[in-house]
Amino acid sequence: MKKTIRNCAELLILTAVFSVIFTSCNDFETDIRSADYPEQKIYMPTAYDDGIYMIDKITKRVGDTPTEGQPYRYTVDLETRKFNVPLAAFRGGIDKKGAVKVDIAVNTDTVSRLIEAGDLEDAEILPSAKYTVDQTVEIGDGKDYAGFVLAVDIDFLRSKAPDKKLAVGIGISSEQRKDTLSTTVVVIDTKMFLPVPDFSYKVGDTWKELSFTNTSSYAVSYTWDFGDGSKSTEESPVHTFPGRGKYMVTLKAKGLVGDEAAKTVEIPVPQISKISKSKWKVVAYDSQDDEWGFPVKNVFDDDVNTFWVTQWMSAQPPYPHWFIIDMGQPITIDRFECFRRQGNSSGQTEHQFLTSMDGKTWEDQGTYPFDLTTDAGQVFPMTASPRARYFKYVATQGNVFFAQLGEITVYGSLDTD
Q: Exposed, middle or buried: residue 15 (CB in 10 Å: 0-12, 13-18, 19+)?
């Protein structure tokens, strides 16, 4: 009997609980159905960043087409002579229901205010006769956006290069939806239409090999003429010349709409070789071990088994340790080669090279790690190819308080080469 009463009580409790849950769910569903969805609005993504949409860089090459689904700032149509800027009206909100008609209009007042306020330096309003733009687009049912194109006369843009920015304001509106971020000021900087060729170079793995670094602006393709009958269309080529001499190297850069410009530089290709040490002499040093016979001059006697050591017994001067060598004549230095004290892993772990024409004014050519675990020569290229009569070797830090060096050699070219 007690068991029956308990079962009935449990059933009544469960029934009450389910009743509460069912009632609560119905109320929750009613609340959801009655809630207001955020209202759809139309906007232009390009209207972000104060509404100024600056086009001043070459982002694609002539003839390239945009990748579907990826943003791009323009395309160039050389056949129709049009500079095409893609724009779009987007919709925001929870759903994408219904088609939305969007009106497109030119907004000159905004551009005029920006120019007067100094926010668009060197800018002028793009004349209406020099561009076309759609008047309406429709964001289809279930769609996020509708695209349209601002098509500008290439030859007019080119005629204003490189000193002017041309601006036009494009606005969107709709009777069906509210708008926000509705005006884009498209600014086209005409400097991008004229190529500016420029380059630098340095000696490569061998003295006849030069590596060229292209630093041109606003170019889409390049042609190199190395002055020895060879040409290249690579952007930054490496070229091996037939021998020493002076070569007229020309870089021709082609611009976005076909303009070409060229830069020519006379480049000497000297023969790089090991420089004789017969004229070398020590000018100054911070320390050397005279007691045991380890002077600075041992580093340029062409014998890796003799060496320089700084004082290490009664006097123990700290880093940095250094010496200055007069090579006796101006040298264009390609690289230094250094040897440790053979079979000895003590000394400097880092060193620095400085160069000078007069022994007073110095140019820093870099600081490099020095490997004390090998007897082999270690090469330190001078990327600036300095011209110098003097060099200063500086041991900057080490695993002991003293520095030592077996041999130092210079590779480069004489002024007479």
A: exposed
Gap between the Cα atoms of 41 and 5, Å rounded: 63
Q: Are strands 165-173 and 123-125 parallel, antiparallel or unpaired?
A: parallel
Amino acid at 23: T
φ, ψ for residue 281 (rounded to 5)?
A: -150, 155
The dihedral region occupied by 49, where left means phi > 0, alpha psi between -120 and 50, and beta the remainder, is: left
DSSP 247-285: EEEEEEEE-TTS-EEEEEEEEEEPPPEEPP-TT-EEEEE
Which string of b and e fits 191-215 if b means at least 16 CB within 10 Å? bbbbbebbbebebeeebbebebebe
Q: Which residues pair with 211 in a beta bridge?
A: 202, 238
Strand 100-106 to 165-173 pairing: antiparallel
> d(Cα 233, Cα 215) in Å, to the nearest integer?
15
Q: Bin 25: left if φ > 0, else alpha if -120 < ψ < 50, else beta.
A: alpha
Which amino acid makes up residue 342? Q
Structure tokens at 69: 């689904």
Which pTM does this prediction carry?
0.64
Rounded to whole angstroms, the Cα distance separating 173 from 179 reads: 6
Query: Cα separation of 399 and 340, whole Å?
Result: 13
Answer for the pair 219, 58: CB distance below 8 angstroms, yes or no: yes
pLDDT of residue 243: 87
Which pLDDT score, from 0 to 100, does residue 231 have? 97
The separation between CA 245 and the C-alpha centre of its own chain, rounded to angstroms, equals 33
Measured between alpha carbons, how far is residue 1 from residues 7, 15, 31, 399 in Å? 10, 21, 46, 95
pLDDT along the chain (417 residues), means of 10: 39 36 38 47 83 83 48 85 93 82 93 92 94 95 92 96 95 84 92 95 84 94 97 96 93 94 93 93 97 96 97 94 97 95 98 98 98 97 91 98 98 74
Spatial separation of the C-alpha atoms in residues 76 and 60, rounded to whole Å: 9
